[in-house]
Amino acid sequence: MNDHQLPTGADRTGPPWSEAELIRLMDVSPSGDGHYVAPAHGSTIRNVVEAGQLLGAAIVAAAKEAPAHRVVSASMVFSRAAAHDEPLAVDVDVVRAGRTFGTARVQVSQREAQCCTGIVLLDAGAPDLIRSAAPLPDVDPPEALSSLDIPGTEVEGRDMRVVGNAYTPDPDTVGPPELFVWTRFRDAPGAAALQQALLTQSAGHWTVAAALRPHPGFGESMAHSTISTGITMITMTFHDDADVTQWLLYGTRVVYTGRGHAQSEGRIHSADGRLLASYSVHAMVRGFRPGDAAARARTDTVL
Length: 303
Hints:
Elements: H1 19-26, E1 29-30, E2 35-38, H2 51-65, E3 70-78, E4 88-97, E5 101-110, E6 113-123, E7 158-162, E8 178-185, H3 192-201, H4 207-212, E9 228-238, E10 248-258, E11 261-270, E12 275-286
Antiparallel strand pairs: 1-2, 2-4, 3-6, 3-9, 4-5, 5-6, 7-8, 8-10, 9-12, 10-11, 11-12
Organism: Nocardia vermiculata
Pfam families: 4HBT_3 (PF13622), 4HBT_3C (PF20789)
Family: Belongs to the C/M/P thioester hydrolase family.
C-alpha cells in the first residue's frame, strides 16, 4: 500500500486487499525471544509498505510481548522503505514491565536493514479518577454520505465515507487543510491489539491530502508522480476501547506545511461521541530533485 494513501488495488501478484489481509499482515507471529515476523503481502505496483501498517504490526508485537499490559501509546519514525513482497522482522525489547506502566522499544527490519524504530508505552490499567474529552466534531453522519469510490481505494470488508467528498484526485479542488472520514469494518478482529492495529493502519492516510487541499494545482493524485511525499513519523495514543465494526470518525487537521514538511493532529471518535484515540502525523511534501526519476517509482530513504 502507498505510504500515505489508500491501497492501490492494482497489484501484480499480491492477494486482493481486504480486512482479513490487513489483519494477517499485522498479526505478527513469534519467532524466538522478543522476535516476531510479519508476513509478506506480495508484489504491488508501488512496492512500499505504508507507515500505518508498520506501526500496527509493532503495536501487536509489543502487546504479545507484554500481555499483562495494554498498549497506551506508540510512536514510530520511518527511515527506510519496506517492501510488500518480503516478510518483516519485528524485534521487541521490553525495557520495563512494572506494576503500573511498561515501556518497549520496537524495531522493524527487512533483509537485516532497519526500516523503522518505535517506542511503545504500556499500562496495567486503572479506573477513572477524573474524565473529560474533546467533543465529536459537528459533521455529516455516515448515513448521509456515499462510500469512497475512487478506483484503487477498495478494501473488501471496510467502508470509508469522506465528509464533503473532500478526498479527491482533482488538484484544483480547494478547501481547508482538514479531512473528516467515517470508517467501519465488517468483522471484529477479536484481540484488543488487533483493534488498535486496524485503527492505526489508516491514521496516516489523510495528512498529505489535507496538507495539499488549500493549494490550487496540488492534489493527492500527484503523490509519487510529480511531487515527492511520504509519512516520516506517526504517534498514536489510545484512550477508550474501540469497536471497529461501528462507525468511527477520523478527524485530521494539518497545523503546518512548509520547508518540505507537513504536520497534522487527529482524533478518532465513536459515533456516540466517545474519544477513542488521538494521533499526530509528520510527512514529507516536496518537489522531486533533478534526476530523481527513479525515486518516483520507489523510496529508498523515507516513506
